[in-house]
Every structure is written in C-alpha cells, then in structure tokens.
Write a structure and sequence with these properties.
The strands form 2 sheets. Strands 1-5-6-7-8-9-10-11 form an 8-stranded parallel β-sheet. Strands 2-3-4 form a 3-stranded antiparallel β-sheet, with no helix packed on it. It has 12 helices and 11 strands. The structure holds zinc ion.
C-alpha cells in the first residue's frame, strides 16, 4: 500500500508578473528573502512566510521520505484563485499555475501529483480548463468553497461539479475568503474560526438544498480540514431537520444520511477529533491530508493517524492510503 498525503500546497519559485500582465491590480508574487525562504506577497502586503518545500521538489521528496509518505497530491494556495478578477485573467492565471505545477511533478511523476485550479467565476472556462488539466496529468481539481456570495449549491457550481463527475475528475474543496473578517482581524482567527465554518457551510449548502439529490453519485468530492465544523455539529443539524419544516423543505432525507456522498481529509490535529470524524464519516471516507508545507499543517505528516489509539490497523491503512488511491484513481 502507498501512503498518500492528499492535501499539500505548492507555490512555484517564480511566475510571470501578473500585475504587469493584466495592467494593474493586487496580485500575488514571491519575495525571495534569503536562500530557501520567501514571503508570499499580495500586492505590497506580506501574506505568508513560506520555505523551499513549496517550490523545490527535491526538498518535498526529502520530507516525504522523512515522514514515510510515498505520494503527495499538491494544490495551489487559494490566494492564487483570482475568482474576484475578470474571468479571462483568472483563466490565464489558472493555466499558468496548472502548467507550473506539472513542472514540479515532473521531478518524480510517480510520487508528486497535482490538482488543477480553475476560474470558477466562469463555469464554461472552468470546465474547459479542468478537462485540459486532466488530459495533461492533473489527478483532480481544487476549488474554493464559494465564489463571492455563491455557495456550492449555486446552479453554475453544480454544473461544474457534474462536469467533473462525468469526466471522473476528483474535486477537493478548500475554504477561502473567510466570512466575518471585520470581526477577526487578529490572532489568525479567520483561519481558526471562519475557515472551519466556511467548510461546514459548503457541506450543508449541498445537503440542505437537495443538491445531492441531483448530483451524480459518481462525483468524488472531498472537503479539507476534516470538513471543518461539520462532523461535530451534525447532531445539531439532524435535530433541526426533525423539528423544523423550513430545514426539510428542500432536503428529503436526514442530513446525516448524506455522509456517503463525500470525503474529508484528516487535518484535524487531535486524536479525539480524528476518532469522532471517523465515526461520523466512516473509515472509508477519511483521507490523510496534512496541509503541509504551510505553518498550520501537520509537522510530521501521518503521525496523527499512525499513533491514534482507537483506530484499527485496517482503518489506518484506509486513511493513510487506500482511500486516496481509490479517490484519485491512482
Ligand atoms: Zn490547505
């Protein structure tokens, strides 16, 4: 069995000057501050300190060997999505990063795999780009969990998900552009509070809108960070569904009955959370995901799963690799 870390991020070492290319606006760029270290910038503001593993495949492979990881699936950071820009700019941007991702993977195509990004504000362009990327070797696509005010149950976004299902392209949903930012300016509260809420909101938008009643059961859909607040709050949602008709109006079945329609990664950082998550989702529906090499990721990838006292060896094998092999058709 191969051990697969299905949620990791990359940043190319350099990319074209997007502000210049598109005639202005705030775009991300890399400020290389010293050998092996860089600051990811947005316009003239610091966004996140990053290090060499983001762009150097040799360093990624060294860390994978250190942690006993056979295969890494990497995706861009949501900062690069450009969903708020003009669709043709975001499309161009997606092509640039999708092609640069494959350059990193080319260092060892058996061990480094990539998810594409798409200009999700334009569904036709997104379908075109995800098909192009899949042909070129991407094993799936990463999308943000919303586009402006549109949640995943938006008609266009459902069309995109259907397109992915029809072409057997796996989808990772990553929270981004977090709600309530004005009240969370400090302490990374947007990452700690709003991100898990964003993901829960996305899952519930698909369940309570009845979208899962129409979306193909072939769709392979995974939510990052253990699905955020979803598993812990599912009892609250079921209770509400039983007692309030406004929650049942578009959702014919008990919300918890839809947990067989999607997957979650294991990036929850505590034994108790991982146990709860596996109980709620089932051991076939949790995939090892570390969020490395970013600072909020698991520092020794796989430790949380391997050292969990409650999971059986069989469950650990599934979470560490078997589930991901199936999810990504590896
Ligand atoms: Zn992530």
């Amino acid at each position: 069995m191969s051990v697969v870390d299905m949620h990791t991020h990359f940043l190319p070492k350099q990319w074209p000057n997007l502000a210049k290319k598109f005639g202005g606006g705030e775009w991300p760029w890399m400020h290389h501050t010293e050998p092996g270290k860089a600051m990811l910038m947005l316009g003239d503001k610091d966004f996140r300190p990053v290090y060499e593993a983001c762009w150097n495949p040799a360093v990624r492979l060294e860390e994978m060997d250190r942690d006993g990881i056979d295969i890494q699936v990497m995706c861009a950071t949501p900062l690069l999505f450009a969903y708020a820009k003009k669709a043709n700019e975001a499309h161009e941007c997606a092509k640039i990063f999708n092609d640069l991702a494959l350059d990193i993977c080319a260092h060892d195509n058996n061990r480094l795999k990539a998810l594409a990004q798409v200009p999700l504000q334009d569904i036709d362009k997104s379908c075109e780009e995800v098909s192009r990327a899949a042909k070129n070797g991407h094993v799936g696509v990463q999308i943000g969990n919303h586009v402006g005010d549109k949640n995943l149950d938006d008609e266009g976004l459902v069309t995109f998900l259907q397109h992915c299902a029809s072409e057997n392209i796996s989808v990772l949903v990553h929270p981004w552009d977090m709600l309530g930012g004005n009240r969370m300016p400090k302490y990374m509260l947007q990452w700690l509070v709003a991100m898990p809420a964003e993901t829960q909101l996305s899952i519930l938008s698909l369940i309570l809108s009845g979208a899962f009643e129409h979306i193909s059961k072939d769709l392979k859909l995974c939510f990052a960070h253990g699905g955020g607040n979803f598993a812990f709050q599912l009892g609250r949602v079921d209770n509400a569904w039983r007692h309030r008709d406004i929650i049942r109006q578009d959702c014919p079945n008990l919300p918890s009955s839809y947990t067989d329609r999607f997957y979650v990664d294991s990036a929850v950082f505590s034994d108790e959370s991982l146990q709860l998550l596996t109980n709620v989702m089932g051991e076939d529906r949790v995939l090892l995901g570390s969020d490395s090499p970013f600072p909020l990721g698991e520092q020794r990838v796989g430790t949380l799963v391997r050292e969990n006292k409650a999971l059986t060896d069989k469950a650990k094998q599934k979470i560490l690799g078997l589930n991901a092999m199936e999810f990504f058709n590896l």
